[in-house]
User: Which sequence fits this backbone?
């Protein structure tokens, strides 16, 4: 199969080539897929995209015209693909549902620890031989209550890790996981209750019509004063402006994010020599109690290996005229597109 890989980052090429074993003819391009760059897909059977690419209605229509039959996502999240349109156009779409939930959950914990214990600021001081300890006070995780919103693959690992820290676990999900209740004593509660009771909130739901701006002003007002919020899911699950207000008025004590609502125009590129025209990221960057990473929770050796192998597996299935169990166009009835 001839495959064009959009949004290629240098570090993933060896993983993809190793998994491919020269079976498919791969072309790597650094540009993201959108309605303009879709033209590059002329002459290919399949495209592979990542979370910053946009497979909107217009883009999918173009891909269909150019003869694209398959879209192999290199991500678990698929909020950037209009699945209803892909199904209507008979373009098959598959994701990598579980490449390493550990990578993401461990990154969420890293954000929490670094924020709480002020590791970045402490290290910056030490680099200047400033060993002053003022303003570096954190809190024990032991006995704190963590609210996990979305207890699927990643949220479950988060629950397991935080149980190890001695936290009390609250969960909120449309489907309950009995194992988390039995093994780790997690209690399922309504979102409102979770927000009222949690000292730490970690978000692990997919972005869709139901979860868009799930965390908003009304909910933030109910939160415990000084709550720490961690978001490694998708930026638009939280309303960024409302979060900034919550940080400014002190309701939110700390925020750790690996994803950002407007990351599409920012992340995965070096903007250090430009004037960044995004007031929200400028405000967030300026706050000492905010820690931002650029969507790199998935960046572990194991995750990159699994992503590459699953992408090639999905392409192999399609090349052999078989279905892959990772096909998303089969589950569109469950999905509310954003
Ligand atoms: P999953 O599908 O295993 O779990 C998601 C959970 O959210 C499910 O249990 C589901 O029932 C629940 N859920 C869905 N809608 C809900 C709602 N309205 N209210 C409450 N719960 C709801 O997905 P997984 O693998 O745990 O990934 C979660 C998300 O993490 C992905 O959708 C993706 O957006 C994000 N992600 C971020 C990465 C990063 O690099 N920062 C990497 C991988 C995933």
Assistant:
């Amino acid at each position: 199969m001839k495959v064009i890989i959009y949004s290629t980052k240098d570090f993933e090429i060896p993983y993809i080539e190793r998994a491919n074993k020269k079976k498919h003819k791969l072309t790597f391009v650094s540009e993201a897929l959108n309605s303009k760059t879709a033209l590059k897909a002329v002459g290919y059977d399949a495209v592979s995209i990542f979370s910053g690419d946009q497979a909107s209605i217009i883009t999918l229509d173009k891909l269909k015209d150019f003869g694209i039959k398959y879209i192999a996502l290199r991500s678990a999240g698929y909020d950037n693909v209009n699945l209803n349109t892909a199904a209507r156009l008979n373009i098959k779409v598959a994701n990598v549902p579980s490449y390493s939930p550990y990578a993401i959950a461990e990154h969420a914990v890293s954000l929490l620890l670094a924020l709480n214990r002020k590791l970045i600021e402490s290290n910056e001081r030490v680099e200047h031989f400033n060993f002053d300890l003022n303003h570096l006070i954190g809190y024990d995780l032991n006995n704190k209550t963590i609210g996990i919103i979305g207890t699927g693959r990643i949220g479950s690992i988060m629950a397991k890790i935080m149980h190890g820290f001695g936290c009390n676990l609250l969960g909120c999900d449309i489907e309950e996981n009995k194992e988390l209740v039995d093994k780790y004593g997690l209690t399922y509660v309504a979102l409102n209750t979770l927000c009222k009771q949690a000292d730490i909130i970690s978000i692990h739901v997919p972005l869709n019509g139901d979860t868009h701006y799930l965390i908003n002003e009304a909910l933030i007002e109910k939160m415990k004063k000084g709550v720490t919020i961690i978001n490694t899911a998708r930026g638009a699950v939280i309303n960024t402006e409302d979060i900034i207000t919550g940080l400014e008025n002190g309701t939110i004590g700390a925020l750790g994010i690996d994803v950002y609502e407007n990351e599409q125009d920012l992340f995965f590129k070096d903007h250090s020599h430009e004037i960044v025209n995004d007031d929200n990221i400028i405000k967030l960057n300026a706050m000492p109690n905010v820690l931002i990473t650029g969507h790199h929770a998935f960046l572990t050796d194991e995750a990159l290996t699994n992503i590459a192998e699953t992408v090639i597996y999905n392409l192999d299935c399609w090349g052999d005229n078989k279905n892959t169990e990772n096909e998303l166009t089969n589950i569109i009835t469950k999905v509310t597109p954003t």
About this structure: The two ends are 31 Å apart (CA to CA).
